[in-house]
Write a structure and sequence with these properties.
The chain has about 180 residues and is mostly helical. About 55% of the residues lie in helices and about 0% in strands. It contains 10 helices and 2 strands; from the N terminus they run ααααααααβααβ. α6 crosses α7 and α9 packs across α10.
Length: about 180
Amino acid sequence: MPTENIKRCAWCGTDELYTKYHDEEWGKEVHDDKTLFEFLVLESAQAGLSWITILRRRENYRKAFADFDVEKVAAFTPEDAERLMQDAGIIRNRLKIKTTITNAQLFIGIQKEFGSFYKYLYSFMPDEKPLINHGNRLPASTPISDAIAKDMKKRGFKFFGTTICYAYMQAVGMVNDHVDGCSFK
């Protein structure tokens, strides 16, 4: 597609990293638990910050959190948490770092209970399928993100309220919220 004919959602602006993320990842359905865990880590880290802040540090998060290997992260020790507090490449928030380790342990528990984190997430979706939304107004949350966030909170997850949950759902393609007219709808 010639670049002059490409239309994008306005939120990604013109930043090269942001447009690449928009064009290649955002709204595309993710099936594998490794990538679902990666986005859980990144979206939780993003709480209270802009997504571009985390996107620019994504490779640092990959290195810091064992290439998003959930088993390895779940086994991190208090010493690992202290090491991460010294890592200038990630957001050095003690609670978010500790939460990432705990969330990894909880993620594994869900995998054992449901067979995969993917199956768990899609158990909340109508007909266990992603949704394609139409229009140009994106919600900050929905009844589905409310239900997932509430269930995850009950299970012990932190930094994953309904707004973060909905952003996660958009990122991993549970919902396709590309605006009407976007070349990537």
